[in-house]
Structures are given as C-alpha cells and as structure tokens.
User: Which sequence fits this backbone?
C-alpha cells in the first residue's frame, strides 16, 4: 500500500503564474479531500469528492481555485494567477467507506 | 463555526515522563461532534492516532489516551511515559457527524512534541 501520493512535493511559482497540484488516492478509496495548511490559519478544509463527483467545495476560495477528479486514480487542485497569500502546504487525503482519512505528505507551494 | 483550541504550540518532555496536551472544542453545528487526534511524524503524512465518537468514552492507541468530556468540551491527550519515537506534531480535530457528513475535519493548530533522552 503506497499511501496517498502527492506531487510535486515542493513548487515555487512567480506571482501571477498558474500552479497545479496532483493527488493519487489509495487504490479503492472512494473519497478524496483537499486541505490547506498555513501558519496563521492552520489546517483548513477546501473540497471533497466522492466517486469522482464533487460533493462539497465550501472551503474553496471563490476565485482562482478549482479542483477536479477526472478519474478514480487522481485529483488535481489548480490555482490560477497565484498570489503570495496562496503559499501553503496543500494536503490531499482519501478514505474508504469507513470514513477514516489517510493523508499524503503534502505539496508545499511557495509564491514569490 | 466549529473550532478546536490547542493551548500549547510546543511541548518538550523528557523520555519516560508523562505527557498531557490540552484540547478544547466548540461545536456550533451539533451538540456532540466526533473527536480525533491526528499525528504527523517527521517525513510522514498526517495519520489518525485515535478517535472517539461517543461522549464520555475514552479512546486509546500506542499508549496514548483521550477522554471525550462533554461537560468541559475537552479531549485532552495523555500518555504515562513518552518515548523519543513519540516526537511529532499532534492535532486535535472534530467532525460533524450529522447527515453522514463525517468528513469535514476542523483541526486545532497542532502541538509539536519533542521528547528528549
């Protein structure tokens, strides 16, 4: 069991550029979650998919952020026109029907 | 909204000594949320340490314990004798278990535990 795989582990972008983060959930897990972690806000829920369908995106910023799950083996989080305040560690997690979340190691995004 | 408070950002404890990490919660959406402790060891992803879904019950794992106290809205993490391998960041969290939405975790800011030899 490889666990949840997130790539890249570190990404540095210039202000205004686009950043795409990838998540490969544990095989067989039906749900995928995205969280964001910053020093100030801590861990914040962003969005959630179940069986590839978007269920709840209430934590996603209304502009520039989007998430997709085109197939059961990966999900992406895209940030357009990145700003310095987007700098954070983005965590992906997956779960089966038991509800326990398994987290990846995270993708650290730095916007200069 | 819901919130979780961990009062200690960093804790240093000598090996074999006891540990307590404080956690209090406020759940505005439901009366009795599910409560969790997650841990992040160096170089690893965040993982579940223990959970309790019933008020008054105690959860335990790897020598750690936490009791769901609805009167004081607390879920403190305790261990009688820590080891160097327990050095990690510990997060208290809650989730709303109404309507099957047992997924949207609200986390505390985390407590960095350093165990010294």
Assistant:
């Amino acid at each position: 069991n490889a666990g949840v795989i997130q790539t890249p582990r570190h990404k540095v972008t210039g202000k205004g550029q686009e950043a795409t983060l990838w998540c490969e959930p544990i095989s067989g897990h039906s749900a995928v979650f995205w969280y964001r972690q910053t020093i100030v806000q801590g861990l914040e829920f962003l969005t959630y998919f179940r069986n590839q369908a978007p269920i709840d995106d209430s934590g996603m910023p209304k502009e520039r952020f989007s998430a997709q799950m085109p197939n059961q083996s990966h999900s992406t989080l895209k940030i357009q026109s990145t700003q310095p305040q987007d700098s954070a560690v983005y965590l992906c997690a997956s779960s089966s029907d038991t509800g326990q979340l398994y987290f990846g190691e995270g993708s650290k995004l730095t916007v200069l | 909204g819901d919130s979780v408070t961990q009062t200690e950002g960093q804790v240093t404890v000598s090996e074999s000594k006891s540990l307590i990490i404080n956690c209090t919660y406020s759940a505005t959406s439901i009366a009795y949320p599910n409560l969790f402790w997650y841990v992040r060891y160096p170089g690893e992803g965040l993982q579940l340490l223990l959970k309790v879904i019933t008020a008054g019950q105690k959860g335990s794992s790897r020598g750690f314990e936490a009791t769901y106290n609805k009167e004081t809205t607390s879920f403190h993490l305790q261990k009688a004798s820590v080891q160097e391998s327990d050095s990690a960041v510990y997060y208290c969290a809650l989730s709303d278990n109404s309507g099957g939405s047992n997924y949207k975790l609200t986390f505390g800011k985390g407590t960095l535990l350093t165990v010294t030899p």
Summary: The first strand of chain A starts at residue 5 and ends at 7. Chain A has no helices and eleven strands. The two ends of chain A are 36 Å apart (CA to CA). The interface with chain B takes residues 3-4, 31, 33, 35, 42-43, 45, 48, 56, 59, 91, 93, 95, 99-106 of chain A (CB under 8 Å).
